[in-house]
Design a protein that fits this description.
Elements lengths: L8 E2 L6 H5 L3 E2 L3 E6 L5 H12 L6 E5 L5 H8 L14 E5 L1 H4 L4 H15 L3 E5 L2 H8 L4 H18 L3 E7 L2 H6 L1 H5 L2 E10 L2 E11 L9 E6 L2 E5 L9 H7 L6 E2 L6 H4 L4 E2 L3 E6 L5 H14 L4 E5 L4 H4 L2 H8 L3 E5 L7 H15 L3 E5 L1 H7 L2 H4 L2 H14 L3 E7 L20 E10 L2 E11 L9 E6 L2 E7 H4 L12
Parallel strand pairs: 3-7, 3-8, 4-5, 4-6, 6-7, 14-18, 14-19, 15-16, 15-17, 17-18
Antiparallel strand pairs: 1-2, 8-9, 9-10, 10-11, 12-13, 19-20, 20-21, 21-22
Helix pairs in contact: 5-7, 6-7, 15-18
Length: about 475
């Protein structure tokens, strides 16, 4: 029989945070919310507090030499998580400024103890705790007094069966020597980085005793709803047996919705594959992608399209627009700049789950790179690899488009060197025949499957893409620049 003691975990009410913590906050734990000024520490603390506070689980929020409670609440009430009915009923604010003016830690500790005993809270917050640290540095024996104060406060909070949060502004060098970091059960570190006019906020669970937290830095946004965390996509490495089981066999195939293209692909696109469609501007990449989604809807397979380059109104033709309005195709408008990969992936997965989608279109990788914050676009190949791996693990079939300049003198399959991510590649090109530009396409690869090696002419009509004859059958006379043989 197991003798393991199960510690109750509290749900924080912050989207994405419980996943980072390993299931929630351990009850009666002693936690530190730290970071740089303006990174969202106070907002995070309030969002947790308003989510957890009830008449049976009351919260006590101490403000030390930071901003007054009334000023703080004036701004916090703008968020949707704020509930004015909980103030004074389930949540009490106490200002400790007067108690700390003379640097008497004993007096501060005594005041906190009296308030806790009187109110019997389940949650205790001290903001900003760094004010106590700064006060300690002004005293000759400040460091020793501070360490004793923090240890006593931590023991008392645990003894009072309260989950405690200390909020403060810290820099990395301070973290290495601060006694607060030693006694804390959990440490949440918030940062905001400015990189070429782009602001990216990140959170890291530095420490969480007794449970496995998600490693690394994770992006988050502050909106009208409060803080929303987007856990970093982590590539799972399956065992050898799992790898063999999960390899797509290529036997089950999806029709593309373009007459003649399935035959060129060797019977359609294998389920669970990622297809990269590359070509110059105007060659028909987006039209091919929309036909792929429309065919899925005709077969009872909902789809999702992420528009990184065009707005939804520009992207969708009348037929597909009707499918979107009917809820059969989900559209993610990602034209706002400074996106993070994890936020984009979160929106995609959420829409896929909601619609039970089987087909996903990313249009285009060129626009995706531009929309990403510089921090992510600098490692675009790595970001793209994580996103494709996460989506294919869901069992969806992906079609990605990418604009590729037609140089006529070389042959490339991706401007990012990311063609290796695709299980199948379709290349669209322009050629000049008898004084006219013609469009041609060819199947470069379909992993683990036979496919056509032909270069076929195609045209874009009111009905969509119409694939025609091969160049050898066309019999025309080529003129102008030579076309590189595929």
């Amino acid at each position: 029989m197991s003798k393991k003691v199960c510690i109750r975990r509290l749900t924080t009410g912050v989207p994405g945070l419980d996943n980072l913590l390993g299931g929630g906050l351990p009850e009666f734990s002693f936690n530190l919310i730290a970071g740089t000024p303006g990174s969202g520490k106070t907002t995070l603390a309030h969002q947790i507090m308003f989510s957890l506070a009830t008449p049976d689980n009351r919260a006590l929020y101490f403000t030390v030499l930071g901003e007054p409670a009334l000023k703080m609440l004036r701004y916090q009430q703008q968020f949707l998580f704020f509930d004015i009915d909980k103030v004074n009923e389930s949540i009490r604010f106490v200002n400790l400024s007067a108690d700390l003016l003379d640097g008497d830690f004993g007096r501060v500790l005594s005041r906190i103890a009296d308030e806790v005993k009187d109110y019997a809270p389940s949650l205790v917050f001290v903001d900003s705790f760094r004010s106590v640290v700064q006060s300690a540095k002004q005293e000759e024996k400040g460091a020793a007094e501070l360490q004793r104060f923090v240890q006593q406060l931590g023991m008392q909070m645990t003894g009072w069966q309260a989950t405690t949060f200390l909020i403060g502004e810290y820099l990395r060098p301070e973290a290495e020597s601060s006694p607060v970091f030693t006694v804390a059960d959990g440490i949440l570190w918030l940062t905001q980085n400015l990189h070429r006019n782009s602001m990216v906020r990140k959170i890291q669970v530095v420490k969480m005793r007794g449970q496995a937290q998600a490693p690394g830095l994770h992006t988050f946004r502050i909106s009208d709803e409060g803080i929303h965390i987007f856990p970093r996509a982590i590539i799972k490495h399956p065992t050898a047996a799992e790898s063999i089981i999960n390899i797509p066999t290529g036997e089950e195939r999806l029709p593309m919705g373009t007459a003649g293209l399935d035959e060129m692909l060797g019977g359609g696109l294998p389920i669970g594959y990622s297809l990269l469609v590359v070509g110059p501007s105007g060659s028909g990449k987006t039209i091919l992608a929309t036909e792929f989604l429309a065919e899925g809807v005709r077969r009872g397979e909902p789809g999702v399209i992420a528009a990184f380059e065009k707005s939804p109104s520009q992207l969708l033709n009348n037929k597909l627009n009707a499918l979107v309005k009917a809820g059969q195709v989900g559209v993610i408008d990602t034209r706002s700049l400074d996106l993070s990969l994890d936020e984009t992936l979160h929106d995609l997965i959420e829409t896929i789950d909601r619609l039970q989608a089987k087909r996903v279109v990313i249009d285009s990788l060129s626009g995706f790179e531009l929309a990403l914050a510089p921090e992510f676009s600098e490692d675009f190949r790595g970001s793209l690899y994580r996103m494709v791996a996460e989506l294919t693990d869901l069992g969806v079939t992906i079609l990605m488009t990418s604009e590729l300049e037609d140089r006529y003198t070389d042959l490339r399959f991706s401007p990012f060197g990311s063609a290796f991510l695709a299980d199948a590649i379709i290349v669209q090109r322009y050629i000049e025949i008898t004084g006219q530009f013609k469009r041609v396409l060819s199947i470069v690869k379909v992993r683990g499957s036979r496919h056509s090696k032909d270069i076929r002419l195609f045209d874009i009509t009111d009905e969509g893409i119409l694939i025609g004859e091969t160049l050898s059958e066309y019999g025309g006379i080529m003129s102008g620049r030579p076309m590189i043989s595929l």
